[in-house]
Design goal:
The chain is an alpha+beta fold and 833 residues long. It is built from 20 helices and 20 strands.
């Protein structure tokens, strides 16, 4: 099959690709996705009763004679033009070009303009023809349709010549103009018959009547397949030359124009991509330029000076220019899932292939600062055995792979970390790390859905920021005093609750302020507060601050604030006061941001701006109704938020930031696995560690735990990991670098009222005969966490409740937990107590 303007026959040309990139054959214009028709079984022709069956040879000669007659009549009709006029009565409705369901790449950017992803099933970027110079446009079509400006959509002589050659046994030819090629796609018509050619010709004429030549050229050049997974000239310019189409030179455009004849190899011919067939590509390139000279589009002098663009031509590796990148191959892949959630909430189902430019809240400077601290992937070995016809497979962790210089580099392979940073002033998520693959487990967010939803980690003492605020709302003061003695069932208490190896602190005895108990991270007072005011009030304050999901005793996700959510004692026992129940890193960062914003909650979000290109000017314009919508509400009073901040300012200690105030809270949760007899498998070892903190400009939460099994989390020296150690180091380094990179000036944090909120006499503290001296903490701020000695008890493991810690269970490569256009999927494994 040949195209108009080609005098020589085409070798090995295949049908145009419709859908995925073609494996072989000539470039084609993609059509809307439609389900393939079911194959029709061939039927044998049976002679009617009483009629003698004709010889096969006679039938063949008779059919050929009829075909020649029909062809001659068809050619005569087309030459007269009568057939086209008559045909319009039967084809009054020609699909308009804009009605084609074209797939165009959506590009995703950081808020400061760095591209982080390119999405879409097909690699296409629509290019307005006005942005291309006339010589470049002509070079793109000179090989396929050099008489484009002279005909009215069809080439009658070309059709006649093609019909004669095909019927007389010559080379199979098609003689389609680029208008006809586009019309074929618009009609969704792949039938290779003369009837199809007639329909195609009629629609081509109608297109020529309705649209200008420049418009039709744009329809064609933005849809035709150029090979290298590139649909349209915009993607082709990047695939072949690594530049926008508007920057193409005439020799470079001629390379693309030459490729169109056959972009990819077939069984009989290697095509015209220089990577596959350099000699044929150069020969075809010369043919394109010679056609330009013949048509007066290029001077003889310019033709003589033209050089084949060998130096600017990019080398090609199959698959490298596929439609998507940035989703499965980098840490911001998880951001794409949140973008998908927000776009679907705006009822934009085609967003990935809709040609959008989406600006996210991610700040590339903050993201880079976070990835300098955490950037780890894990390699697993899958082993399968078959017994009695049943296959059983197991996966073994082989090693962890870290980016150079990160905080996890060189640490034990079972460790994983996640972190989220939010701008408290607007709710923008400016940095996010939950893993290196958007289709894998997100350790910073929620995965799966329904009964299989997982992703939270027990926040331990870092959750006390919510319990403290709930206490202030319910009449307590930071100067309220408590008896911090440990609780024991043996002594008649309802649960065993310890203070992480710091029981019976002589600095304040049984008359300790809530402020000091927060700084020193005692558990007993917070258990008592939850018991006195009710667990539901603690949970409700956490919800108002930004915690949307908590995993309950039975391991089920409770979506706080939604109908059916259970938040009472039957779901969350008094241990909620010191952080037994898992929450996500994203939610914890959101809660911290609410305190940084003086009690104003601003919903975390990822999409800042959504734009689409004006097809006429190429200018990006905002899509009406889409983009950043800051949802805010007052979670609790400014006075309560600032009072909590005044306490948390005392905690960062060894992780104080350079030249600026910060508030923070640590948290460490003990490894609670037990043997059948109730003994702990790993006594004195931890499984989750946190550091949560904020300045007025950035709130960040950092979690360190396990990649799969609940193993002890120890560092490369064998020491226990607690919140004040590795998570605190990650938080400190990230916050210092992010503030510096973003040029954020130091701002003060509030001082609070020094205990004037609430009743200082409320509490169960036993007042001594004389007031004790001002207590001196037995540990420095920021270090009041469980001892790393094996004999210590890092965090309480109280009864009767369980501590569900949903553990991400990475699926086999064939099962992906999340997709950007569908439900998040995964496997939920409840933790042991």
């Amino acid at each position: 099959m040949t195209t108009f303007g080609d005098d020589e026959p085409v070798v090995g040309r295949a049908r145009p690709p419709m859908g995925p990139p073609p494996a072989q054959g000539r470039a084609g214009v993609p059509r809307p996705d439609v389900p393939p028709a079911a194959p029709v079984a061939a039927r044998a022709r049976v002679a009617p009763p009483g009629r003698e069956k004709r010889p096969v040879a006679a039938d063949a000669k008779r059919r050929k004679r009829r075909a020649l007659i029909a062809a001659a009549i068809g050619v005569a009709i087309m030459l007269s033009g009568v057939g086209l006029i008559a045909g319009t009565y039967f084809y009054a409705k020609t699909p308009r070009p804009e009605e084609l369901a074209l797939k165009e790449n959506t590009e995703v950017f950081s808020v400061d303009g760095k591209q982080i992803a390119k999405l879409g099933a097909e690699n296409r970027t629509v290019v307005p023809m006005e942005t291309l110079s006339e010589p470049v446009r002509n070079a793109l079509i000179a090989g396929e349709d050099k008489n484009f400006y002279q005909h009215n959509g069809i080439d009658l002589w070309g059709i006649a010549r093609a019909a004669w050659n095909n019927l007389t046994g010559g080379e199979t030819q098609g003689a389609s103009t680029i208008t006809q090629q586009y019309a074929r796609a618009a009609a969704d018509d792949l039938e290779i018959t003369y009837a199809r050619k007639m329909r195609e010709a009629v629609m081509a004429r109608k297109l020529e009547e309705e649209f200008s030549k420049t418009q039709i050229m744009g329809f064609y050049l933005n849809t035709v397949y150029f090979g290298r997974s590139a649909y349209g000239v915009g993607a082709a310019a990047q695939a072949y030359f690594g530049k926008p189409a508007a920057e193409l030179t005439v020799p470079e455009a001629a390379v693309l124009g030459a490729v169109l004849r056959q972009p990819e190899p077939s069984d009989s011919f290697a095509g015209y991509d220089p990577h596959h067939n350099s000699a044929a590509a150069r020969e075809r390139w010369n043919y394109v330029l010679n056609n330009m000279v013949e048509m007066g589009w290029l001077s003889a002098a310019d033709r003589q000076a033209a050089e084949y663009p060998e130096k600017s031509l990019k080398p090609y590796k199959p698959g490298q220019h596929a439609g998507e990148w940035g989703y499965q191959d980098r840490p911001t892949g998880n951001v794409i899932n949140y973008v998908a959630d927000e776009m679907r909430a705006w009822n934009i189902p085609d967003w990935r292939s809709g040609g959008y430019r989406i600006t996210t809240s991610i700040d590339s400077r903050a993201q880079a600062a976070l990835e300098k601290q955490i950037n780890r992937t894990h390699q697993w070995k899958r082993t399968c055995t078959t017994k009695d016809g049943k296959e059983t497979c197991t996966e073994t962790l082989e090693k962890a792979v870290d980016a150079k210089g990160t905080q996890l580099a060189g640490q034990p392979k079972n460790l994983m970390a996640a972190a989220v940073a939010i701008d408290p002033r607007n709710g923008r998520v400016i940095a996010y790390y939950g893993g290196n693959d958007g289709t894998g487990v997100d350790y910073a967010g929620s995965n799966g859905s329904g009964a299989e939803e997982f992703g939270g980690h027990p926040p331990a003492s870092s959750f006390k920021i919510y319990t403290l605020a709930a206490a202030l709302e319910n009449g307590y003061s930071i100067k309220s005093r408590f008896d911090s003695s440990p609780l024991s069932k043996k002594n008649g208490d309802e649960a065993d609750v310890s203070n992480s190896g710091r029981d019976n602190d002589v600095s304040c005895g049984k008359y300790c302020t809530l402020e000091l108990m927060t700084v020193k991270s005692y558990n007993v007072p917070f258990f008592k507060i939850a018991r006195e005011i009710g667990p539901e009030k603690v949970v409700d304050l956490a919800r108002r601050a930004g915690v949307t999901t908590m995993w309950s005793n039975d391991g089920k996700a409770q979506h706080l604030g939604q109908d059916g959510a259970k938040t009472g004692r039957e779901t969350f026992y008094y241990q909620v006061g010191f952080g037994q129940y898992p929450i996500t890193v994203l939610d914890h960062a959101s809660g911290a941001a609410t305190f940084a914003a003086h009690g104003t909650y601003r919903k975390p979000h990822f999409v800042v701006k959504v734009e689409r290109k004006d097809r006429q000017t190429g200018e990006w314009k905002p899509v009406e109704g889409l983009g950043e919508k800051v949802e805010s509400r007052k979670a609790f009073t400014t006075e309560i938020a600032d009072e909590v901040t005044s306490v948390l300012k005392q905690i960062p200690g060894v992780h104080s930031l350079s030249g600026r105030e910060a508030a923070g809270k640590t948290g460490t949760w003990e490894n609670g696995q037990r043997k059948a007899n109730g003994e702990k498998v790993y006594p004195g070892k931890n499984s989750h560690a946190w550091f949560v903190g904020y300045t007025p400009q950035i709130a960040a939460a950092v979690w360190v735990g396990n990649v799969r099994q609940e193993l002890p989390i120890v560092d490369k020296n064998g020491d226990n990991i607690a919140g004040a150690r590795l998570p605190g180091q990650i938080w400190e380094e990230f916050m210092n670098e992010a503030h510096k990179a973003m040029n954020l000036k130091p701002e003060p944090l509030p001082d609070g009222t020094d205990g004037r909120i609430g009743d200082p006499d409320k509490g169960d503290g036993a007042s001594p005969a004389a007031p004790p001296p001002s207590p001196t903490p037995s540990c420095q701020p920021g270090e009041c966490e469980p001892s790393t000695e094996p004999s210590s008890s890092p965090e309480p493991e109280p009864e009767p409740s369980k501590s569900p810690s949903p553990k991400p269970n990475p699926p086999s490569p064939s099962v992906k937990p999340r997709t950007p256009d569908g439900e998040r999927k995964g496997t939920f494994l409840t933790d042991v107590r």
